[in-house]
Specification:
By secondary structure, the chain is α+β, with helices and mostly antiparallel strands. It has seven helices and 14 strands. The longest helix has 12 residues, at 159-170.
């Protein structure tokens, strides 16, 4: 068991939640144990008390007390970035939907992790090392998508741009619209889902559950939804606009109202429900569109991602026409 460590947050960790930071650096520390350390003030950020949901920024100092974890879980003072593989740069370039000197937006495919973790060896964060420029600037993540969610992923090309973009996301100036295929038809066909979400410790913290207001570790989550099209009473194509950005928010919220997302291995809880023939049992969730002010004042970034192959296959099977609809991001924001 080592002594107290004061770890400086790296430049590629801008906007990361504190619990995710601990999971990346100390995989042997359980979420329950981390919460206890935070409650008792043993873990601090820049000398102040903090929570699992606290967002960290480059230069922050995390106080880490002695932990009863394997020595292999203790990070170095300056964690070494994973080395990119040959072909990573060309692959990432093939995913670019929009790009300028400061920002790029990737079309992240379903199945590709954004960051590393237990058993994850190939992910966007490591691959970005292959795009270092002549001045040594490495592109950085500013937000995240679940591994099985496809679509728009915003990347900053420099550290200062990453900090500016992270601030835009925290201030909710980034307007996001997702498309999903869910079981059944929500009633009403337009509405909002407002709950408190907390990690489900019975599921080892890897799943979110609806919690009570004031419950330890619970955060408010708000999502606007609307039904775009239906296939009888069996399936619905939804437009989802998250106002907050909680872990698994859209997946947990759609399940909460009784209409889980098709292909979701964590939240789809319909018994005796059969996947329609011709559909792939993959998560049908797409980060369809993102609109945000350019961090350098160069107008507005407005990017739309196409349906991934498995969702395009389902849309064709159901007769849904993706070209006939695109979201209006001006409404239902509060």
């Amino acid at each position: 068991m080592a002594g107290v460590a004061n770890i400086t947050v790296g430049g590629d960790e801008a906007g990361m939640r504190l619990d995710r930071w601990f999971k990346a650096h100390y995989p042997g520390l359980s979420h329950v144990a981390l919460q206890k350390l935070l409650r008792t003030g043993q873990v601090r950020l820049d000398g102040k008390r903090c929570e699992t949901s606290t967002r960290i920024e480059p230069g922050n100092v995390v106080r880490v007390p002695p932990l009863a974890t394997d020595a292999k879980n203790v990070p170095e003072r300056e964690p070494k970035p994973e080395k990119p593989l040959e072909g990573d740069a060309a692959y990432l370039k093939s995913l670019v939907l929009w790009e300028d000197d400061d920002v790029m937006v990737l079309n992240k495919p379903a199945g590709l992790s954004v960051q590393g973790g237990s058993g994850v060896h190939r992910h966007v964060d490591a691959m970005l090392q292959s795009l270092v420029d002549k001045r040594g600037n490495v592109p950085r993540l500013v937000h995240r998508l679940d591994k099985d969610t496809a679509g728009c992923l915003v990347i900053a090309k420099r550290r200062l741009v990453a900090a500016e973009l992270a601030a835009l996301f925290r201030s909710r100036n980034a307007k996001k619209t997702y498309w999903a295929l869910v079981a059944g038809v929500p009633h009403p066909k337009q509405g909002k889902i407002s709950t408190w979400l907390a990690r489900d410790e019975e599921k080892d913290g890897e799943k979110m559950r609806v919690a009570r207001h004031g419950e330890d570790g619970a955060s408010h989550a708000l999502t606007h939804y609307s039904v775009i099209d239906v296939a009888g009473q069996t399936l619905s194509w939804l437009s989802l606009k998250p106002v907050t950005g909680r872990t698994h928010q859209l997946r947990a919220h759609t399940a909460h109202i009784g209409h889980p997302i098709v292909g979701d291995p964590k939240y789809f809880d319909k018994r005796d429900w059969e996947l329609p023939g011709g559909m792939q049992n993959k998560l049908h969730l797409l980060a369809r569109r993102i609109v945000l002010p350019h961090p350098k004042g160069k107008g507005v970034i407005d990017v739309t991602a196409p349906l991934p192959p498995h969702m395009r296959q389902s849309w064709n099977l159901l007769g849904f026409d993706a070209s006939s609809y695109d979201p209006d991001l001006d409404g239902d924001d509060d």
